[in-house]
Description:
The structure holds five protein chains of five kinds. Chain A is mainly alpha-helical. Chain A is built from 20 helices and two strands.
Amino acid sequence: MSNVPYLSVLIALPVAVCLALLVIPAAQERLxxxxxxxxxxxxxxxxVLILTLYRPGGGMQLEExxxxxxxxxxxxxxxxxxxxLPLVLLAxxxxxxxxxxxxxxxxxxxxxxxxIVLLQVGMIGVFLALxxxxxxxxxxxxxxxxxxxxxxxxxxxxxxxxxKFFIFTLVGSVVMLLGILLLWFYGPKERTFDIxxxxxxxxxxxxxSQLQMWIFAALFLGFAVxxxxxxxxxxxxxxxxxxxxxxxxxxxxxxxxxxxxxxxxMALPTLPEAFKGGWGTALAVLGVVNIVYGAALALTQKDLxxxxxxxxxxxxxxxxxxxxxxxxxxxxxxxLQMFTHGIITGMxxxxxxxxxxxxxxxxxxxxxxxxxxVPTLSVVxxxxxxxxxGLPGLAGFVGEFLSLMGGFERYPYIAMFAxxxxxxxxxxxLRMLQQIVFSPRTPDVALxxxxxxxxxPNEMVALIPLMSFALFLGVYxxxxxxxxxxxxxxxxxxLGG
Amino acid sequence: MxxxxxxxxxxxxFLLAAGAVGFSLAMLFSRNFVHSAAYLAAALLAFAGLNALxxxxxxxxxxxxxxxxxVTVVVVFVVMMTRVGVADWRAxxxxxxxxxxxxxxxxxxxxxxxxxxxxxxxxxxxxPVTTRTxxxxxxKEYAAPFEISSLILLAALIGAIYLAKEARQ
Amino acid sequence: xxxxxxxxxxxxxLTACALGLICFDVLLPxxxxxxxxxxxxxxxxxxxxxxWVAMNAAALYGTHFEGALVLDAHTTFARLLxxxxxALVILASWDFYADRSVAEYFALFLFSLLGEIxxxxxxxxxxxxxxxxxxxxxxxxxxxLLKQQEMAVEAGLKYFLLGMFASVVMLYGVSLLYxxxxxxxxxxxLFVAPGTLTPAVRGLVLxxxxxxxxxxxxxxxxxxxxxxxxxVYAGGSTPVIAYVSTIPKVAIxxxxxxxxxxxxxxxxxxxxxxIAALAVLSMVYGNVVALMQDDVRRMLAYSGVAxxxxxxxxxxxxxxxxxxxxxxxxxxxxxxxxxxxxxxxxVSGQERATLDDFGGLGRRGPSLAFAMAxxxxxxxxxxxxxxxxxxxxxxxxxxxxxxxxxxxxxxxxTVVSVGYYLKVAQEMxxxxxxxxxxxxxxxxxxxxxxxxxxxxxxAVATVLLGVVGVRFM
Amino acid sequence: xxxASWFLALGAIVFLIALFxxxxxRSLIQSLxxxxxxxxxxxxxFVTFGRTVGDPAASGVTFALFAMVVGAAEIGVGLxxxxxxxxxxxxxxxxxxxxxxxx
Amino acid sequence: xxxxxxxxxxxxxPAACFVVLTVLRRRLGERAGYVAIGALAVSLTACVALxxxxxxxxxxxxxxxxxxxxxxxxGGRVLDFGVLIDGLSxxxxxxxxxxxxxxxxxxxxxxHGDERFAWFxxxxxxxxxxxxxxxxxxxxxxxxxxxxxxxVCSYLLIGFWYERPEARSASIKAFLTTRVGDMGFxxxxxxxxxxxxxxxxxxxxxxxxxxxxxLFLTVACLLLFVGAVGKSAxxxxxxxxxxxxxxxxxxxxxxxxxTMVAAGVFLxxxxxxxxxxxxxxxxxxxAAGLFTATFGALLALTETDIKRTLAYSTMSQLxxxxxxxxxxxxxxxxxxxxxxxxxxxxxFLGAGSVIHGSGTQxxxxxxxxxxxxxxxxxxxxxxxxxxxxxxxxxxxxxxxxxxVALWGGKEVGQPLxLLLFVGxxxTAVLTAxxxxxxxxxxxxxxxxxxxxxxxxxxxxxxVALSVLTLFAGAANLPWGHPVLAGLVAPKEHExxxxxxxxxSIVAASGGVYVAWSQHKTRLGAVYGLERYVVYERxxxxxxxxxxxxxxxxxxxALSEFLRNLDFDRLIAALVVDPVFRVSDxxxxxxxxxxxxxVFVNGTTxxxxxxxxxxxxxxxxxxxxxxxxxxxxxxxxxxxxxxxVDRTVDGVGETVQRLGRExxxxxxxFVANYALLMLGLGALIFYLAYWFxxxxx
Lengths: 497, 169, 473, 103, 696
């Protein structure tokens, strides 16, 4: 069994599911659904298998390294380590839950599920790729299905949002591509796009300090748009508001993580001088700005989904802060925060979608008395909100705590301001809960036609795993950190922290 | 033209040059298209003369036959067919004339400047360029372009016929 | 001589078939349909012959016909690519000229195709000129093939007037170069650094070069020589435009590399800077203006201008790797662009094609829309489609040769280009059709099976070139 | 001997005059005539250079010959197009009438 | 059963109860209450067992239980979580167990008929569980975890009747205010870990002892104290507390005694070695604590709502505890914490019973309830005596211990200690006054409403608690061998100062006397300045009048002024409003508009000047170029105008405009094209040639 290309199979499986979905006639909706479910299920199962094979602390594992395009020096190099494993888990789990959640999707189900699985190809690939070009390929693949998800099933301004999403991300990624070319061009004698090789080269001082600053800037732009870091975030609220539920879940749950992952996998370990030479501080400041800005904007949003979108910006600020710290705690925190944010925000977007489906509105001003009308949904919403506002004991706290700890280790005077975000975050979530959940039911003309029904079984099946994760990680994050910490420590060591 | 009479050659050159330039301008500024075509024929004849002056007699002959003859006839034919009449040449000008003139003048200065720097005198051909020489060239060294040119003509023929033939239906 | 005939047997075969096709039509005017098979068969036979010649490369490679034509790897590459593309165009236009013009159409098409190969195989500016003319003259007529259509005739006339203008200017340039350099053959490097020229001829070389580039730039639609293309593409007969917009560009780019490659190797700064400037302007202008188009063919014309810019990046960068990258890019561009025009043909027929025509195509013709999406995203440079690897290889080559700014501008304009490629995708999979009526109630797009086959082939090529083909770059 | 540059200059001048004509005339037929004239001056340049280069193959003349053939072919197609255009009701056959396609 | 399992059982039982009740809340209905009682009874038993073991081990250096397992690993360093039971936690846990059980029993009666009955008991179980967890936690992080969970429960409980607007706003206020304090707590914890690489309490104490960086520790401890300030409602984060009365009364009973507010004091007590090592932090505690004590008492003077009065008293009593901690009176503080829990829960439950019976919360509308609610009245009297500090009730001994500690003033220096002592004494007088005034108003005098006694399930806990209030003082009698002192701080020895005890008795009696004398005048108790007219008219005893003008009037005036100051609104105006305003402004604009205006303004200027150049200088022959630029400039202006409303995406729109303008070059005219080809091409070539003329 040792020569099974586990990771390649993990990428090939969704491709196969895609092809299968293409072949099935659109009219056979049931078959389409079953195929999507079985497909994503098998992918997830395969990922669990990989999880069992993974040895915590063993560095890069299950590597596959083959020549691909010799002319441009591109290789097919995959591998998995503590940093990527949790994110791959997200990328295999969330689509499965999305398929379950949207079981009743009746507008073009074939295209819908096809796009989800296609998205999965890119998402898994990004976290597995160890070659810059390969990474970039997967990075870009992700754009297309998400673009269509927004464009076809989105809200009223879907076209604007879809294009905005695509263009913003693309601007970032082409500049990132230029950075990658710089890395390659000034790299070792035998030019290579190999991430690990270039990382070692960078750590050995291969790149001049001044050059590092520039390359970091180029990579930064690519990752910053994706995270998104202020002031490159403006695409996010639009994309989230317009995207269908599943699109939002995957966008917030996985796509945003690609940026943070990029920093941790590439920018930081490869360009330590740039990090020490000012980019670290800049990131810290931006991280704090993200935290406070996201929370401040979420505070007065009138649209529930937009509020959650801005909360995402705030939470990703903690990721940035942790990255900026570059210490073991910070990197642990950033990585964990990415995972937990995926879980929690995924949950929140699911819930927003459920509310919208029932009330046909996302306006905070129009929703009332959910606790009375849809108690189960409300309890989950309360749970998710508390998890999101960083309640200790739930998953959100651990990542934030460790990120902050990292921040305080390196930039106590900057990190100080991040603490404000904690209060603001609590404020807008509580305001939201107070307004829509814990409020008396008032007969509203606009909602008179809506017939609220409580959570459906398939929705609960999608939510319960996320809730369990959120609880488990908050109560006992040790197993996860055992996986994460060696990788994080290695990065911290490279940065001398 | 025999080189032994240099003075004569100069006279002929200037006459032909004046003809070429003059008829060109006349063609350009004539208000009547039929006149225009006639001036064009005249200018092309002047060119034929110049070619002959340079010793390319075969080419000069072709110029007379193909251009001054055949092509101009076709042009006149089309002019007659389309019944395009007389017009004030000012009305025929594009709005961009001034700009075009400026560009052409600037361009011309540069071009003439470049050409003026080119001084070699005309070398005498080692062997006269006879029809036979050209025939040999066309069938040996330039066989490929020659054949391909024939294809071009064929293609043009097919195209022109196809485009024009509809008239009869 | 015999070996020359064997070496160029594919071309001779094509010529013979083109002639035979006309004769056939004249003799059996009622059997129009058979003409198509002859055309397709001749192209396929030419491909086969090319393959056979390539297998005997050692014996046949070299110059032929007194050095007028050269048979080498590039020629073979061009033959195979043009043959394939030609076959695809024939397939796509299978049912569109089945009336009385079919013989003329296919004959002219084959002549034009021959011209392309002459351009690549030629060794001198004379052959280049003649090749260009053989390519161009049939297309003037082809563009206006639907002469009952006013816009087609207008397109033909514009194409002709500007094309002839460009040819004449180019010819003047050739004459200046001939006078200055005493030769027009580029078997030996034609352009050398002007510093090594005597001042007397330096001016002539510069003017000659510029005029030459004007003629060539016209055909590859490089800014500012591209002005004809949007008008002609928007008015002409679509299958012809599919052809005109791809293969001539490829042929000229290959020839340009032959002509200018050595010159740039000897660091001719001005020439290089000119090409680089054309590249930048083409990329910027093409992409920016394409954003504002509602007419799909016109949009694709501007996209073509932009793509020419990308190709010129490789030319400016120079070097072996740039050339390899360019070849790959050209192959990709050929299939992608052909495919895109084929879909336009399928959707709008020979009429004006607006973005609205693509509304809801995702439901009215899912497979067509899927293919179009592949083409659009490939043109936009989205991995893992071929377009990405083509561009990536080009930009990488630019970086290697120190053209950072070209790579950066290319990347940024690529972003702009996404704006209009996405517009098509949005129309197809969005708009009012997206979710409203059930699929069955929409009027489905009917496209002839051969056209579908051609589209499928180009789409598969676009995907496979990216995922698999890139290995062989 | 007459200096070659005189012939070249003459060729250039007529080329430029014709070029100016091409750039300014509205009538398509006149445009065509201008192109003819440009082609002729190119031919003259070729022949002149053929003499200065002085190669025995008389390439200049041959080039001019090819140019002439090609030019004739082009004019043929062009005139056919003009005819079609005229038949479509554009009585004046001016380039102003080529106005459907733009932008 | 191993001891650590017993310790784990204490918080685990109510936590499990929470899960069970949440899941089965529909099926159980009102039986949920008994489930909760059962769970808490098990916990209480375990607490008793632990306390017994702790008593046996009193005086030992090692804690009774200290087990932990890894919770997280960060950079190779392990963060633990576990259980730490020593004298302090065992005593406090026992107190919590008792009070929580009583409150839950009481609540079964109080909440009868509520539509979310089961949910109430679920949350209150979790509330108790988190307090248990907090007390038994072995490290700071864990304390913080339970601390926050408790905060959430308080949010849910205070806002339990979310149909009432004041309940909803109160719940948010409570959570957010404490959260502000948590910012400090969190920062402190992080700083401690960053410095000492551990959060395990004994390890942390060792580390702090070994490397006492006083300045750093002071900062860290003050940050922890900020957390405690929020939770224990100390000045200036006190204002959530009175509002928290919007919740059901059992919640108030629990929240104000054994949990929540106790957590703040417990946190400081728990980390007391750190505070001692920090040294400079203690005076802050003392000052803040005593200030809050006096402040709370002053506020209570003019309060007429029965529950709010009790709330201010809580604040005041907690200030006492903080003050005691500030002067090194750890034992005194913990002692008072425990006794206070008993009598304060008793007071609240009694008040609940009163409200239940009379249907109002305003004391001015009550009176003579002693007749109709005898059991409530009796138990309430016990509690009132206790809080007023009358011997021999529990409150007397604990308050006395605090006064002793203040007088000693070990950690703060004599002058400040004296001031604190005077403040403490003053507070004692005020407390006795307003509590007894309250009692007299409510239970004596003429009947103003028809009330009825509460059911036995509500009064039984009252009785039980009053028994405890009577005898809990025995836990730490100032003479002999104080039990609690042995448990909490075996090395400390408090002296017994008899004259201090006498002084405290005098002070308390003085307060009671004033209250009684007021009541006796049959004019009713004085709750506001409007009643001074009574004295001004010359009625009443002359002593009383003197007393009134010299003492009561200024104090009342101060109280009223402070209450009118409405710190709450001040904060709202200074902090909350601006935040919302900023948020609103940002939401309106976000960065999109900024992008638009910055990008567009700059470009417009450039375009305009270029257009002017083109239009004015160059011949109109260059119409195409000139026009293009001019229109470009105009279009920029248009964008600029529209940019404000954010509908445009600056850069994208500008590129599109550019495209639209460049389109005009495509005139459709052949001659134009030809000229452009020639002219532009030549220009480009010339420029390329010009710029590279230096190179080859």
